[in-house]
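Same chain as my last thread, 332 residues:
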Amino acid sequence: MTAFASPTPGFLSLFEEHLQEVLGDQEMEKNRDPRVLVEACRHLSWARGAKRMRPLLVDYFGASLGVDDQVRLKIATTAELVHTASLLHDDVVDEGKTRRGQETVNARWNNSVAVLGGDLMLCVALEQLYELPREITRSAVDLVAEMTRAAMWEVEAREKKGWTLAEWERIADGKTGALLAWCGRAPALAMGEAELAEAFGTCGRSLGLAFQLTDDLIDLMSPVAKSGKNRYADLKTGNPSFPVALARSESLSVRSALDEMWSVGVSSEEELEKIAGVIRELTVPATTLERIEGHLDEALEALGPFADRPGGVHIAGWAAQLREMARRTLGG
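reply #2:
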């Protein structure tokens, strides 16, 4: 996806400068030994492949409320660091080797550095909120706890290989939806707008679920992977995916084929293509698109009159772009 220009002049440049400062030597070398953990924090954070979707959403939500630029930068930095820390931890669980166009931390160093570097990054993320209203810090701690629980549910789902649609939603909501919800909640809390925090949180969470559904759909439908993953990664690894869970609930033959493939642990491209082809012939793609559009409609409804304000216009435009991407994936 192409990010819309920030409603705040130079926001992304200011964000990158602030992130460089936060992870720079002057800040990170204060009680940050051993050095390897500092390098681990920087490794993915400064990678060119980082899309900065979450900082941009913070900027969009913040701009719609007139949140001070420096407050916006601190919240945006927390969101990005929490996200990146979760990637370090995910790559250990997944035994990932590449991320954002370069080696993962666990591949470059080892699992211990990745886990502990992610822990340090979470601490740095929360430090950004010290001078902001306490409710924002409290909500950030709740966010990390929710993402942690969802990551564990994902591990358990992979192990049993028989996850349901409800389990997929619980995982997607906790890993992706929760963080985008916080990107909406935190700027509103900074302005003391508790009611708007709930509405903006709903908006962000719905955007997050739509984003995850689209990623799952692309994995199944696209001839070339568009999400940075190998094609059919979800089918191959048994990673929780909405289309796959839906196919398992609709077709006994698909469920049996997947159970057999996952039990063996080896799958050829031909086998993956065959199973994916069967799933594409079901109502799965159309139902997935319907769910994506439903979540996007929910997001816009929660945004309400702010959809016509600076920042809100950008959120609505981002939602429209995501909708178009999902439709194109189905050839619409």
